[in-house]
Structure formats: C-alpha cells, structure tokens
Amino acid sequence: MPAIRRQASSLVIARVAPDCDGRVDPADVLMELDENTALVTLGIANAEVGTTQDLAPIAAAATRIGAAFHIDAAQAPARNAKRKKVVHPEDMPWELSRHGLLKHLMNEGMNTRMETVDAYMLIIPPGSRSGKHRQLAEECLYVLEGRGYDLHQDYDVEITDTYHWAPQAEVKRYEWEAGDVIYIPPNTASQHFNADPERPVRLISAVNRIYKASGLNDLEQLEDAPEYRPGVKVTPEMVQDFLRPRRKVSESA
Length: 253
Known about the structure:
Blueprint: E1 2-7, E2 10-15, H1 26-32, E3 37-43, H2 56-65, E4 68-72, H3 76-80, E5 94-97, E6 100-106, E7 117-124, E8 129-135, E9 139-145, E10 147-159, E11 163-167, E12 172-177, E13 181-184, E14 188-194, E15 201-208, H4 210-213, E16 219-223, H5 236-243
Parallel strand pairs: 3-4
Antiparallel strand pairs: 1-2, 1-3, 5-6, 6-7, 7-15, 8-14, 8-16, 9-13, 9-15, 10-11, 10-12, 10-14
C-alpha cells in the first residue's frame, strides 16, 4: 500500500507491506502519514488469499490530514464469491446493547455481500424506551410493530481538524405506529419511546456504512436503555420476555 508525499517539487512513495495473512496493519500505515501526504491508496482485498482490509481507521487518518483516499476494488469479485447473499435467522446475532435489545440483520462483521448498509431490529418492551444517541450518519427506521414516539434534538456542528457539537434548544416529538417510517437526519440526537404499556415495539433500523468507511462514524451514546446490563448474554428466554405482552391489573373497588 503506497502513500504519496509532496516533497518540494518531487513525490515520495512510501510502501507498507502486508502481514502473513495478506492484511495491512492500520498502525503501520498511520506511521507513514504526515501533513505532506497527498494520497493514500489501498486494495480492498488481497489478490492471493482474498483477505479484506480494515479501511475505516486508515480512511479516518487520511481525512484528518487532508489526503485523498483511494480504494482499489479489482479483487472484489473473488472476495464476493465467498460472501452471503441470503442471511438466515440463525446467522443474525442478538446483542443487549446500550441502545437496547438488537438483532443484527446485516453488518460488516457478518460476511455478506452488502457493502454500504448496516441494519438491525430493535425491540422495546411495553412502556419502555431505547437508549439515546447522537450520530453523524442519517438513519431510517421502519416500525414493524407497536406505537410510540421519538424525541429528536438537532445539533449544530463545526468541522475543522476536529468535530465541535452544540445541541439546539428545541426538542421535537414525532408520533409513529406500525407501518410508518421514521427518518433521523444527520447530526441529530434521537430516542424511541414505546407508548403502549401492554405490547412491545419492533423497529428495523438502516444506516449507511459509508460514513464509517470514510472515518466519519461519529456516534455518542448519551443515555442507556433501561434494560441494558454490561456483559449479559442474550438468551431465547430474554427475547421472549422482551416480546411478552403485559396485562393491566385492575384494582377491585
């Protein structure tokens, strides 16, 4: 992988060798970058063994110093032949995350053909809420089941050599129900609330992965979901409990 530097009227090419698995260590690349670097170019997959490269940290570093970032995808067909076009339920991992109970439908760690979209299903128990996060990427959610509302807070952002975020004063509320689509703009803090005390909510989220690949995956978790417990392994019984309808208990006179 070469990095090209400006040096007076000439160009200097620095090359970084892959390891025995055909993967370039991002740390080795970062050591070659400085304010004179004009271009960073990297093959998305190794031609001999098909190993894919970790692009995000290299793309982020190139963006920070103002260098162009070029990806050679000529080996993508060989790599894609080993990737899934159909993902079965047993291959979709569950996670009790800070944002809530997630079933990952598609992401870069699942060996699928999808290059640009991360998708998951979020389950919110009756009367509960998701975590609250702010992210640079825009997000789209389909309401598969339930009813509730979102709270959105826009942020003003200034991008120089770092990001500077400032929340706006207004918090906006948006009502939704099954069959609706929720759009969350870039630079927005958002949180989902289940307004039904008896039935769960299921949301399908899709986010463009290009932000992450370009080093712009700025995501800040501002509040955890009430059910979040660090290190807890998701079991079928836990999923069923999240989905279990709650019944109102009426008090006798």
